[in-house]
Amino acid sequence: MASQPRYTTTGLARSGHFQTIVPTLFRRVTGVDWRRERITTRDDDFIDLDWLTASYSRLVLLCHGLEGSSNTHYMKGMARACSTTGWDVAAYHFRGCSGAPNLLARAYHSGATDDLAEVIDHVLAGGRYRQLALVGFSLGGNLLLKYLGEPNSNPPQQLSGSVAISPPCDLSGCCDRLNEPQNWIYQRRFLRSLHQKMVAKRELVKQALGVNKLPRCRSVREFDHRYTAPLHGFDSAEEYYRQSSSRQFLTDINHPTLLLSARDDPFLSEQCYPRADEINNHKLQLQYSDYGGHVGFMQDHPQGDYWAEQRCVEFLQSLPS
Fold first, then answer.
1. Are 129 and 90 in contact, with CB atoms under 8 Å apart?
2. Where are the beta strands (DSSP E) in 65-220?
3. Which residue is catalytic, options 246, 265, 269, 289?
4. With the C-alpha atoms ordered 309, 92, 38, 95, is the resulting torsion angle positive or negative?
5. Distance CA 287, CA 1 (A)
6. Of 83, 98, 110, 138, which is the active-site residue?
């Protein structure tokens, strides 16, 4: 059985849309001064990492959501929470998400565990950290769950555990949710940002796709069919969703992992809330709250404490060192 939820709230905060939108618009996180590092990938592209360090021997690697960055409120909030409890923090920017277009036509996607593995190798290469934890939000949560459970994965011995917050374990179903009328504002925002990134690499993308003009898309599913799939070696959006959805990998996760989601999340399909008896994996703890929205879990007000950060830190502190 999934863990009993301990997050409660009242009033307007019992709206998934309220919890999703208000922190995004009004939360301001102070005390996080990132130091940037740019690494060259094996395919001669680059990935930017932002560091928050205090010479601890434990490291948390943060993975943001769709069109996020290290400046997203939940990334800075989690970085601050982890730093104050004895963890160094590295925020992993997916390709093209750090403020500058990446150098190749390919970008990032929900199943790009090859990049995640390369970043993990890099942050551990100096031998400074004896313990590593992964924390992913939304798309980043799906990514780390897939990494942990896919058959060819080889997590390092320093990895002690992971937390996935609001992961879209069923990508196709989540695209259906985004296409519902009440979610038009989210889909429109994602599409605007995603298309701008294609325009910024216009000539590279047109050459890779073999087109003379970049098509405009009316849904995230259409964007994934026209751009994400062909740029990353998938035949269609559905094949991309089928191969990259993390739900199929949950049974094989072999490190302590917490999957934390809210039942009123406007993005997640029912398949994103698997039951413990379906997964049959004692390494994976499922915790679903009635409220919290998508990567929300605000408590008193936008500048106050956020329950997901408190729960994450509590889980990380319980991991064997």
1. no
2. 88-92, 131-137, 159-165
3. 265
4. negative
5. 9
6. 138
At 71-130, the pLDDT tens digits run: 999 999 999 999 999 999 999 999 999 999 999 999 999 999 999 999 999 999 989 999
181 is a domain residue: no
Q: Does 57 qualify as catalytic in the annotation? A: no
The structural domain count of the chain equals 1
Query: Is residue 90 situated within a structural domain?
Result: yes
Q: How many CB atoms lie within 10 A of CB 275?
A: 11
- Decide if 40 is inside a domain: yes
Instruction: Express each pLDDT in 269-296 by its tens digit.
Output: 999 999 999 999 999 999 999 999 999 9
- For 178, phi and psi rounded to 5 degrees? -60, -30
Annotated catalytic residue 265: yes
Which CATH number fits the domain that encloses residue 117?
3.40.50.1820
269 catalytic residue (yes or no): no
What is the rounded CA–CA span in Å between residue 168 and residue 44? 30
pTM over 0.85: yes
Task: Quote the CA–CA distance of 72 and 231 in Å, as a whole number.
Answer: 26
In the block, which residue shows the tokens 């992913």?
Answer: 136
Judged against a pLDDT cut of 80, whether residue 3 lies above it is answered with: no
Tokens for 30? 């102070």
Provide the residue range defining the domain that includes 299: 11-170+246-317
**Residue 228 counted as domain residue:** no
Catalytic residue among 64, 73, 109, 294: 294
Are 142 and 64 a contacting pair, CB within 8 Å?
no
Name residues whose C-beta falls within 8 Å of residue 15's C-beta, 6 or more positions apart in sequence: 264, 293
